[in-house]
């Protein structure tokens, strides 16, 4: 079931370095939100705090809160590993386990969780690959290594792997930046379909992509030279692109910087 995400006064650090300040935003269930902004403003950093991946970096931490509906993801007793299942992530470079079979790549998370029933694993592999629009291309070679697929197929394999564990939110950090235009469109179509089931946040440097796939757009920027990144504005994508509230947003969208 798709859920909402709400951050309140999120401040994010790498040791002494204050990377992002005071981010408060709400992401509605079954919507696509694009994170845009110049390099280094903290888009990936914010994304990684939404499923507690940030704290995997030694010395990295965050203050403030991240709520998944009414659950505080940083609350006492919350298991970060469970959070990363509920809030799945797809990375910039496709990262399948290269020598593992296509089928085992998809169900790796379930196997890790102790599922051993082969019929059940096969069923989840098929529904996840269908969900990622990859089934028809790989159904005759499920036992072949994941590393043998094209880049675009590998990225869809990673999406299948993320959805196999039934997440409620999918975080995607520039999922198309290593892909050709046709694979990029395939992923964009897929995002549009996945939205009916999941809440999606996608980081992108491609303004056309943000305009095509997202319902809401959040623009981040540095709050000054050497200063932390901040959320400048968030709104409906059509409004942010055609009638932004802040001149910085307009300058960025119209290509005047970044
Ligand atoms: N592991 C890390 N250790 C220390 N500082 C980091 C680390 N990762 C990122 N940073 C710093 O945090 C700030 C935000 O980085 P982040 O990667 O979130 O930016 P971004 O908006 O995703 O940029 P890009 O568009 O280039 O991917 C930058 O100043 C960056 O150098
Ligand atoms: Mg980034």
Q: What would the keywords be for this entry?
A:
alpha/beta, Rossmann fold, 10-stranded mixed β-sheet, 35% helix, 26% strand, binds magnesium ion
Summarize the structure.
The protein is an alpha/beta fold and 258 residues long. Helix content is 35%, strand content 26%. The chain has helices spanning 43-49, 80-86, 102-112, 118-131, 135-138, 151-164, 181-194, 207-213, 237-242, 247-253; strands at 5-14, 17-27, 32-36, 60-68, 71-72, 87-90, 169-173, 199-203, 216-222, 229-236.
Whole-number total of structural domains: 1
Work out the helicity level. 25-40%
Biggest sheet overview: 10 strands, mixed
Average pLDDT figure? 95
| CATH architecture label name | 3-Layer(aba) Sandwich
How would you write the strand order of the largest sheet?
5-4-1-2-10-9-3-8-7-6
The whole-angstrom Rg is 18 Å
Work out the strand percent: 25-35%
Low-confidence segments, given as residue ranges, are none
CATH third-level topology: Rossmann fold
Question: Cα distance, first to last residue?
Answer: 36 Å
The bound ligands are:
adenosine-5'-triphosphate, magnesium ion
What CATH first level would be assigned? Alpha Beta
Number of strands: 10
**Globular, elongated, flat, extended or rod-shaped: what is the shape?**
globular
Backbone structural class: alpha/beta
Order of helices and strands: EEEHEEHEHHHHEHEHEEHH
What's the total helix number?
10
**Fourth-tier CATH superfamily name:** P-loop containing nucleotide triphosphate hydrolases
